[in-house]
Amino acid sequence: MLWIGTYTRKEGHVNGLAAGIYGMATAGDSLVEVSTRTGIVNPSYLCLSPDQKYLYAVSELGPDVDSTGYVYSYQVAGDSLVLLNRQPTFGFAPCYVSVHPSGKWLYVANYVGGVIVRYPLATDGTIAAGQPLTLSGQGPSSRQESSHPHSACVSPDGKWVMVADLGTDIVHTYAAEGPTWKEVSKTTLPAGAGPRHLVFHPEVPLVFVLNELSNTVAVFQYDADTGALTSTGAWSTLPDNHPETSLAADLHLTPDGKFLYASNRGLNSLASFRVETASGQLVPLRQTSTQGSIPRNFTIHPSGKYLLVANQNTNSVVRFNIDAATGALEYTELWMVKTPVCLVFGGDGSRKSEVGSGK
Fold this sequence. Notes:
Layout: E1 2-6, E2 21-27, E3 30-37, E4 46-48, E5 54-59, E6 70-77, E7 80-88, E8 92-99, E9 105-112, E10 115-120, E11 131-134, E12 149-154, E13 160-165, E14 170-175, E15 183-188, E16 195-200, E17 206-211, E18 216-222, E19 229-236, E20 247-253, E21 259-265, E22 269-276, E23 281-289, E24 295-300, E25 306-311, E26 316-322, E27 329-336, E28 340-345
Antiparallel strand pairs: 1-2, 1-28, 2-3, 4-5, 5-6, 6-7, 8-9, 9-10, 10-11, 12-13, 13-14, 14-15, 16-17, 17-18, 18-19, 20-21, 21-22, 22-23, 24-25, 25-26, 26-27
């Protein structure tokens, strides 16, 4: 099963055309819609609980729609989603949601308002009242007039949650659990970098931070005991002398941690890197066209055999096979899906989470 978060209404940056959260499965070589969860506006980002019984989705709203954004909880019932409850996010344009490895906590980042929120989760998957924290500051870019938290990622051991603040060029590290937010570390990126998303290496203490505005991946040694980050360098996601405007969007590692990919909106490509785990360095490999425009989120199948890219502005989801030895991407299939943003495998109940023929 593949769950797809989307935009459902016209916004300043996108002409949302979708109906809600799509549940997709395969029929031969086709990706087919088997369910659509309506009743939620702009479910742009999704995540599944560790046991895959529950799906959480932000509702990316602005002040022209409501007094706050929301985060929704759904029970995964086979191929469908059953609404459990929702909670306010205390800010606007919530753009990221993640869940603690224990399944006991949920985290949301609001792009507008500088608010991050931690929510206790009940055993039945419902979301309890949230604990908001408002960040402040600014950066040198016109996009950095105030704090803009863009993600909140939990460390694999569940000790820390790292918040990438695009507006202030800071990655904040907080204790993941507890009655109140407790900051334990703060890492400042170069001025104007615009940190957006980050990922943890599955085997060694490395953290990779994608900077949207500078189009770079910054790599850090990670102290699991303190949450502190130490830089090992930064690498461009764009080819040399790229003349056009492009903004980095997302990054993911293969399950074995050998290869890293980052999406570029504008260049409309995936940048590939080999990860040198001993030194914490990246080796740039190649650029691969995403076969569409404005690649937002992408996801790598748990098998590591292929990845899927959501091309937001050309209404498509594209599959690429991954060469296990070289990390090279081979385009195989394209399916039409209205304004896709976020792709999440699993939680299917009865269907396999394989997508496409792999031909």
